Amino acid sequence: MLAQIQVSPRPSGTDDDRYAYVDAAIAVIQQSGLVYEVGAMGTTIQGTPDQIWPLLRAVHEATVHAGASAVSSVIKVGQGKDDAGPTIADLVGKFRA
């Protein structure tokens, strides 16, 4: 399964760290141990449905726990039959140098 999440906390961070609350969300993904790729407009995560669904919630909530007053998240999910769907590398590997 692949999922992409874009968190939009309000505010996005603090005066000292402009993207502190976004970084808190990415830290949750990093700690998951799953394959992921941070992009300019969202982060793609690869794993099983049992790994991905709870992680998406944790990523969303991490921004508020870090101090944001509110958050909106945009989530895209793709899954193949029997979790045999494409990987991140399958979809973007040919475009990398």
Automatic annotation (TrEMBL):
InterPro entries: MTH1187/YkoF-like, Thiamine_BP, UPF0045_domain. Residues 7-91 form the Thiamine-binding protein domain. It holds the Pfam family Thiamine_BP. Belongs to the UPF0045 family. This is Uncharacterized protein YqgV (UPF0045/DUF77 family). It comes from Cellulomonas humilata. The lineage of its organism: Bacteria, Bacillati, Actinomycetota, Actinomycetes, Micrococcales.
